[in-house]
Recover the amino acids of this structure.
């Protein structure tokens, strides 16, 4: 085999408390489409960031055309011939197509004046090779998402990229647009350009790729030739054989339904979601990023408005909350996925954070009783074993696990018995994870009911009594924990089943 | 740092600089002492009872306005319309005087009207979802325009004693102290106060904690308007005349006092004590410049410089604390 265009040797990257990548090996040949798959949190994003030069401080070696290559700046990487097209588009919407393609490399006349005519001509030329019929002078904001993406590919081509990394390029494209993109990827391959294609969609992966590499929990699992690989084999590689977290078995759930939603719909985000949540149950919600899980949770909690649907709480028909304040009064609590920006007020103390919802909920608390506040908060600090010198400690000075416990404490303090946890263990270390799991088990034993959104399969399978799986805004399956296999869940989540 | 600024929870390793950074109020007290001594040496008439009563009147108007401004800034907004609202309230007071309205009707009426204009600002901010600086820039011109049209540019003097009394002797400073204590208590001991800090620190978290953010913002602007009502009565009593051009530039003085007092434009930070001290410092400097016969042209420039200095101090404080937090 010829020298690979790009070779990764034993790449290792550690974030405080989390090993994001562990001994990852990858290689890409010239003119090859390599698909990279893995669950959410398997380390794909970290790997892309390292390759794009957006993340430094990793161990291991990157070989580019056989030479050691270490770049700490994104522009160095681009100059070397690696272009990255991110899931979130990075173009400037108010500039023209040509301006975006040549941003920072505008052709100039003598005296440093931008040569508009030449820029537009060059842009038209490269768009032509992609068979795109777009006016180079059009503003990017007037284009569809698919065309905006192609603009970025055009930009990569003008930079003479040898390798284009595409991070979930089809996640927001229609079926027709996906076909166009696939044609373009094939054309790139014909031109000898390599593509690292990150995606969850197996249909495209099997159509486009030459080989498939799998990551799991930051580890490199293996690579298969696409023509020899089966979907089952790849799914098994993605989820692993064993779900080896020691989760405790719980006594069977109670029959009483505390929350029932019917046909919850928010157009463009999720459709016809119906489920029942029982007393003392953990209902796991599984699915890929963008399946509409967070949006659904925000709908139930009144953060975003829903278009239609109905809700019954403790046997009583209720209107779906129009604001978090209303949800709070119904006894619902919400632990958002971003604890630093949404879950906590970092500049405030632990005590102030914990009592925020209680103060908002109860008019009787208009005048704050500092004595009672201190007593209550100290009680929760002890019950949840939050490690802090005092309740006056600012929330920003706590570790991730302890911050998460503060978020949980604030909903317990507000007497909410229906709790929605969105990725409760994201970005916290293993030890703290176990503590959060213990806490959740304790809560359901005390008749709290929990809806847990999680992207980690072991977590969903270990913690939930039942598992609801969402795919592209639709509820595709509702399984009992004992009846579910990881392959099955992954299959539903990716739309392969 | 906000209310619990004195109850430090981080490692006590720093020296004097650390204390100064942590408790902005101490810095201002230090400045007040330095400025007082400086002016006192230069001018004999500074350390006299008459002069202090005089300063206290000036401070009272700006101080009361600054407390309202502080509320708005802590919630990450700003109210540029306060000078115009003051002018409009002055114009209305003129009518009330003409109609021989007794003070026990006029005073509450002015407070209510001030609160109403504030609420209007609040509703616009919440409903239009436009930054407060833009909304109040608009209402600043609208309110000022209404004041001009309504009064026809006419001055009213010969006010009854019951109107004058609010701006005489020690009444202004007493009113300031009452208002300051009231709001210090509100900010520290009520859930409303806590919500204001939470919204300023992180509006999204506050909303997800169930706080009614929109309603709280409306109340904040209403409070600012109410305080303008108070300030109007003091202002009229102090000057003894009613003029439609009153209050020009007062929003800048109020912002200056609040920022000098450690209120951060980044939101979520600031105390009533600091704000009042900021107003005191500004009052002293203005008075000093008059005593030292510095021309009016320079006065504006010097006040501006002080505000820029205060902003630099705020930035420095944030950078320094950021570095401490990471260390």
């Amino acid at each position: 085999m010829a020298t690979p265009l790009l070779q990764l040797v034993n790449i290792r990257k550690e974030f405080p408390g989390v090993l994001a990548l562990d001994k990852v090996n990858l290689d890409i040949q010239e003119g090859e489409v390599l698909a990279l798959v893995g669950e959410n949190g398997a380390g794909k994003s970290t790997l892309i960031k390292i390759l794009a030069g957006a993340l430094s401080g990793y161990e291991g070696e990157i070989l580019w055309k056989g030479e050691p290559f270490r770049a700490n700046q994104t522009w160095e990487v681009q100059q070397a011939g690696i272009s990255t097209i991110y899931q979130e588009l990075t173009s400037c919407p108010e500039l023209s197509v040509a301006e975006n393609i040549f941003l920072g490399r505008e052709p100039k006349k003598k005296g440093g004046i931008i040569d508009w005519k030449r820029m537009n001509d060059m842009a038209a030329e490269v768009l032509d090779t992609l068979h795109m019929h777009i006016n180079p002078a059009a503003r990017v904001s007037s284009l569809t998402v698919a065309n905006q993406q192609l603009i970025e590919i055009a930009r990569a081509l003008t930079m003479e990229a040898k390798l284009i990394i595409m991070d979930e390029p089809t996640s927001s494209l229609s079926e027709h647009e996906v076909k166009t993109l696939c044609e373009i990827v094939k054309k790139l391959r014909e031109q000898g350009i390599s593509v690292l294609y990150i995606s969850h969609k197996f249909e495209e992966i099997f159509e486009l790729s030459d080989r498939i590499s799998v990551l799991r929990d930051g580890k490199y699992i293996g690579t298969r030739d696409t023509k020899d690989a089966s979907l089952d084999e790849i799914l098994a590689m993605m989820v692993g054989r064993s779900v080896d977290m020691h989760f405790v078995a719980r006594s069977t759930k109670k029959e009483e339904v505390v929350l029932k939603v019917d046909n919850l719909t928010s157009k463009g985000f999720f459709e016809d979601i119906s489920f029942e949540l029982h007393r003392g149950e953990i209902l796991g919600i599984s699915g890929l990023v963008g399946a509409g899980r967070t949006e659904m949770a925000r709908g139930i909690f009144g953060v975003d408005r829903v278009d239609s649907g109905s809700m019954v709480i403790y046997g009583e028909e209720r209107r779906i909350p129009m604001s978090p304040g209303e949800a709070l009064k119904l006894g619902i609590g919400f632990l958002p996925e971003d604890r630093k920006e949404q879950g906590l007020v970092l500049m405030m103390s632990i005590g102030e954070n914990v009592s925020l919802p209680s103060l908002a909920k109860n008019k009787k608390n208009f005048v704050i009783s500092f004595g009672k506040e201190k007593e209550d908060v100290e009680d929760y600090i002890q019950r949840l074993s939050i490690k802090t010198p005092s309740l006056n400690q600012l929330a920003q000075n706590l570790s991730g696990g302890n911050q998460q416990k503060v978020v949980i404490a604030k909903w317990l303090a507000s007497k909410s018995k229906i709790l929605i946890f969105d990725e409760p263990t994201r970005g916290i270390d293993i030890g703290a994870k176990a503590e959060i799991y213990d806490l959740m088990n304790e809560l359901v034993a005390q008749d709290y009911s929990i809806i847990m959104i999680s992207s980690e399969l072991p977590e969903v399978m270990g913690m939930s009594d039942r598992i609801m799986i969402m795919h592209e805004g639709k509820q595709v399956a509702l399984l009992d924990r004992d009846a579910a296999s990881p392959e099955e869940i992954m299959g539903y989540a990716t739309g392969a089943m | 740092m906000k209310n619990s600024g004195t109850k430090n929870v981080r490692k006590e390793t720093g020296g004097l600089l650390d204390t100064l950074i942590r408790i902005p109020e101490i810095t201002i007290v230090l400045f007040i002492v330095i400025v007082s001594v400086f002016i006192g040496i230069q001018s004999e008439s500074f350390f006299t009872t008459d002069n202090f009563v005089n300063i206290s009147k000036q401070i009272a108007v700006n101080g009361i306005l600054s407390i309202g401004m502080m509320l708005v800034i802590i919630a990450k907004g700003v109210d540029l319309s306060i000078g115009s609202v003051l002018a409009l309230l002055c114009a209305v007071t003129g009518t009330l005087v003409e109609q021989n309205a007794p003070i026990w009707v006029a005073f509450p009426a002015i407070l209510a009207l001030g609160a109403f204009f504030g609420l209007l600002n609040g509703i616009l901010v919440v409903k239009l979802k436009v930054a407060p600086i833009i909304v109040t820039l608009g209402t600043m011109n609208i309110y000022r325009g209404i004041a001009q049209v309504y009064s026809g540019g006419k001055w009213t003097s010969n006010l009854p004693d019951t109107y004058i009394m609010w701006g005489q002797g020690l009444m202004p400073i007493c009113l300031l102290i009452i208002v300051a204590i009231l709001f210090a208590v509100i900010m520290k001991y009520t859930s409303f106060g806590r919500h204001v800090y939470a919204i300023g620190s992180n509006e999204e978290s506050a909303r997800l904690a169930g706080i009614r953010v929109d309603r709280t913002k409306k109340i904040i602007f209403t409070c600012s308007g109410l305080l303008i009502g108070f300030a109007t009565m003091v202002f009229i009593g102090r000057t003894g005349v009613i003029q439609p051009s009153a209050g020009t530039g007062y929003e800048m003085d109020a912002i200056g006092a609040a920022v000098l007092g450690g209120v951060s434009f980044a939101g979520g930070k600031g105390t009533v004590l600091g704000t009042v001290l900021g107003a005191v410092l500004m009052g002293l400097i203005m008075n000093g410049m008059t005593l030292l016969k510095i021309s009016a042209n320079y006065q504006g420039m010097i006040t501006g410089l002080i505000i820029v200095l205060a902003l630099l101090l705020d930035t420095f404080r944030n950078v320094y604390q950021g570095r401490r937090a990471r260390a």
Chain B has one domain: 25-33+48-313. Chain B touches chain A at residues 2, 4, 7, 9-10, 188-192, 194-195, 197-198, 201-202, 204-212, 268-269, 325 (CB under 8 Å).
